[in-house]
Automatic annotation (TrEMBL):
<dbReference type="InterPro" id="IPR008995">
    <property type="entry name" value="Mo/tungstate-bd_C_term_dom"/>
</dbReference>
<protein>
    <submittedName>
        <fullName>TOBE domain-containing protein</fullName>
    </submittedName>
</protein>
<dbReference type="InterPro" id="IPR005116">
    <property type="entry name" value="Transp-assoc_OB_typ1"/>
</dbReference>
<keyword id="KW-0500">Molybdenum</keyword>
<feature type="domain" description="Mop">
    <location>
        <begin position="2"/>
        <end position="68"/>
    </location>
</feature>
<dbReference type="InterPro" id="IPR004606">
    <property type="entry name" value="Mop_domain"/>
</dbReference>
<dbReference type="Pfam" id="PF03459">
    <property type="entry name" value="TOBE"/>
</dbReference>
């Protein structure tokens, strides 16, 4: 699959926590860093996500905010 988004980070699914409609998918990107994505349970099933599977986190954001 080709995609235009440039912010792609490879990692491994380390945990999937399913809720009523949404799952939190934790992706270990190395050095103890975890990215968590909130996606629908349907998307988890469609993608056939499993712990230990290699995946890519694709980040698309129109704004980045910084606060102190």
């Amino acid at each position: 699959m080709k995609i235009s988004a440039r912010n792609q980070i490879g990692g491994t699914v380390s945990k999937i926590t399913k809720g009523a409609t949404t799952s939190h998918v934790s992706i270990d990107i190395g050095d103890g860093t975890i990215i968590t994505a909130s996606i629908t349970n349907e998307a988890v099933a469609d993608l056939q996500l499993r712990v230990g599977e290699p995946v890519k986190a694709i980040i698309k954001a129109s704004d980045v905010m910084v606060a102190v």
